[in-house]
Design brief:
TIM Barrel; oxidoreductase; 347 residues; Proline dehydrogenase; alpha/beta; globular; 10 strands; binds flavin-adenine dinucleotide; FAD-linked_oxidoreductase-like
Length: 347
């Protein structure tokens, strides 16, 4: 990937728990409560170590050792099992064992100059996940750049308020906000009323946040508002060519004009939308931007199932896009051939 011009890789250990709003069921590898065979399951017992959290810690640390400097590690916190998801569903921080595992993961990643993207997951767990991400950003993003990024899902109606709250905390506590922006991948299982009514609304929300961050003006933060814009590192994860190309062009324009902006990086999933990734890479005119990453997910077949299912749903849209790109190319080839033909046959 790096030989092809990508800046680096994002690696994710796939274990996760997905909450289906319509059935109120949780699906994942470690969703069942631990049995008596595994001993005392009380998280308050001093010597108790939850095996699911330990398995997640091991898988995640293993992933760090597959990365190199400037790569990213993406973490799905619900992969640590029922004790963690119970806390998230209540909007709380997970048990201390999980917080310790996260500290170990963050320290090891930082030592290797690897950054961490905390993935956004089902709405049912998201409040707790976001709380953890904020805690980690407050602790590890104090060197003028983001080691930890929280993921903001533009399809949620609540995201502008969440983001404003986090910008305020970053301002007050003086840390860099890692702003990873996605549209959101849980439409098939999340509560529909929480998500924008139309695709166009989601697109507008995505582009407004991305371009607002690049202009250092979001809501009341920035010189058009009443509050300072905090230090922000932007990470645009998307297969939407229009969004990413517009963001890169805006960033480039602002850098060249000496206007204030924030650092930005881009990513697409491994095996999807290569056309978007390569179009971005082709826009590099020698200054090393845009910085593009590919995201690869690993795990056993069982662990990867929910991830693969979401990609199958997204690929339906991607196939439609491929078809329209193919038709556009065919039209362009025909237009050029016609121009050549009419030139050679003219007197
Ligand atoms: C590197 C990387 C990391 C990612 N990490 C996460 C993550 O942590 N959490 C997460 O949730 N997703 C994540 N995603 C998935 C990402 O959200 C999906 O790729 C995205 O949903 C597809 O949107 P798009 O930006 O590629 O654009 P498009 O393909 O243009 O948009 C499709 C998206 O638009 C939205 N949408 C579609 N129809 C409607 C409708 N009728 N009403 C409202 N909205 C609609 C949905 O979000 C849908 O997925 C990640 C993607 C990448 C590339």
């Amino acid at each position: 990937m790096k030989d092809m011009g990508f800046r680096g890789m994002i690696l994710t250990y796939a274990a996760e728990t997905v909450f289906d709003h319509s059935t109120q069921a949780q699906n994942g590898q470690r969703v069942t409560a631990l049995t008596s065979k595994q001993g005392d399951v009380s998280i308050n017992a001093p010597v108790y170590q939850c095996p699911s959290i330990e398995a997640w810690r091991e898988g995640t640390v293993q992933t760090i050792y597959m990365t190199e400097a400037e790569d990213y590690l993406a973490v799905k916190l619900t992969g640590a099992g029922v004790k963690v998801t119970e806390a998230f569903a209540a909007g709380e921080l997970p048990p201390q064992q999980m917080m310790d595992a996260l500290d170990e993961v963050c320290t090891k990643a930082k030592d290797r100059k690897v950054r961490i993207l905390v993935d956004a997951e089902s709405q049912h767990f998201q409040k707790g996940i976001s709380r953890v991400a904020l805690e980690l950003m407050r602790k590890y993003n104090r060197d003028g750049y983001a080691t930890i990024y929280n993921t903001y899902q533009a399809y949620l109606k609540s995201t502008p308020v969440t983001l404003a709250n986090h910008l305020a905390v970053a301002n007050e506590d003086g840390f860099t906000l890692g702003l990873k922006l996605v549209r959101g991948a849980y439409m098939a299982t999340d509560e529909r009323s929480l998500i924008h009514d139309t695709k166009e609304d989601t697109d507008n929300a995505y582009n407004t946040i991305a371009q607002g961050a690049l202009r250092k003006n979001i809501g009341e933060f920035g010189d058009k508002g009443s509050r300072d814009f905090p230090s922000v590192n932007l990470f645009l994860a998307s297969h939407n060519k229009e969004s990413v190309v517009a963001a890169h062009q805006l960033h480039k324009h602002r850098v060249m004009s000496g206007l204030p902006t924030v650092p930005v990086r881009f990513a697409q999933l491994h095996g999807m939308s290569d056309e978007v990734s390569f179009s971005l890479l082709q826009m590099n005119d020698g200054d090393g931007t845009p910085e593009v990453y590919k995201c690869s997910t690993w795990g056993s077949m069982g662990e990867c199932l929910a991830y693969l299912l979401r990609r199958a749903i997204e690929n339906r849209d991607a196939v439609l896009r491929t078809d329209s790109e193919y038709r556009a190319l065919k039209k362009e080839a025909f237009r050029r051939a016609k121009a050549v033909f009419s030139l050679s046959s003219s007197p």
